[in-house]
Amino acid sequence: MRPPVSQAAAPGKVILFGEHAVVFGEPAIAVAIDLETKVDLIPDETLTQHQVNGEPLDTYKHLFIEKAINLLWDNAGNTTRLNVQTNSRLPSAAGLGSSAALSTSTCAALLHQTEQFSETRLARAAYETEWIGQGEQGSPIDTSASTHGQAIFVDKEEHDNHLWTLRRSDSTWHVHHQPLERMSFVIAHSGEKGKTGELVSKVQMYHDRTDVAQKIIEDIGDTTREGQEALRRGNLARVGELMDEAHELLGMLGVSTSRLDELCRTAREHAHGAKLTGAGGGGCIIALTDEPDACREALQDERAETWIVRSARKGARAWGHRGTRTVNERH
Ligand code: MEV
Cα separation of 231 and 181, whole Å? Predict the structure, then answer.
């Protein structure tokens, strides 16, 4: 008999508006992108330990995979060891949701393997995995974008197009499908790494100690609400202006760097707007532009690694010996 293989794929994301502020209940919009992580998973009776990419699972190197396996396999009483292979096009610690795509695709393969795959279960399990892996902090925005694909709107209030609701102690996030024309972005990597857990802790401390930080976070929330309205009207020039404003506010929150600021300035010569994406402290900027080639060339002249990406139609999928499961069939 052939071994029962489960395979899964899940996209990375960019945050158009609202990173960091979303942790404190302000609204945010994330767009899934067509750079993905893929996972293959086979239970193997001959193994004595879980294996990842041909080596024994190591907590330090494979933190998110270990958390997902504990949650959905070991804790469910399965004793057979797993052979896991991963393959990703997403750079790590770059604000493009690489750990969320890894958590989501691993959970999707595990839920497929145990015949429990559903979009809400996946969204919950992927968030739980990332939350633990990220030092028990952060919002479900990255894993929800990776699960659903397309674009999502996260808010503390529930609206139309509701997908699922996730809670942690006294925080509640309602996740919604965000209607969006397919978009392209130019992405440029600063060459610096930004660790999400550390940056979320830094902003939390600033927020808890000063009114200034609380006001900046509320202002980020306002740019998100205005940005959503500009997207609804199809006014990309206004979306771009608001991205610029959001970047300024993130700078005031202490999560930009001089290199990220410089890349945004360069991108804006050929773009509606540009901002850092994700936790910051390094990682990437995104530019919304009608001239992707010119924008990309200008950024390459600054020695940045660049990508032109499109918003992803598909969210997480799993397939293998039990057929294909796709999560975003409703939209
Ligand atoms: C990281 O992509 C987004 C942050 O808002 C952290 C989080 O929401 O968990 C910075």
Answer: 9
